[in-house]
Prior knowledge:
Layout: H1 12-20, H2 28-36, E1 41-44, H3 48-54, E2 61-62, H4 68-72, E3 90-93, H5 99-109, E4 116-117, H6 121-127
Parallel strand pairs: 1-2, 1-3, 3-4
Amino acid sequence: MAVSEKRPTAGIDELLERARQGYERVDAHEAHAVARAGEALLVDIRYAALRDRDGLVPGALVIERNELEWRLDPLGSHRIPEATGHDLRVVVICNEGYASSLAAVSLHQLGLHRATDLVGGFQAWREAGLPVVS
């Protein structure tokens, strides 16, 4: 495609809808259950100001969005010890469930086929009355 040709564009709402069609999202109670059972890794990608303001999901790993792929790629040189393989189930948590959807798609592109995100993000977790620590 030549530089002067324009590609069809999509707004963010359409982009999110397309992204979410590629995997099944989880609600707060399901995320809590799979984490407690040791069946999934919860990953909080919110930036520090939000974590400081609202608290943390107990047991969730904090990996800010700009480092997510580097830390969770099982083949990457900057991976965390928990990034043991492409079968790892990861539930990404952002503030309201938007950025986490795009992050989950990015993890799928790395081969983490069980990656998903939390519908409604941290705010839904808190509203469900699930544990939060300061």
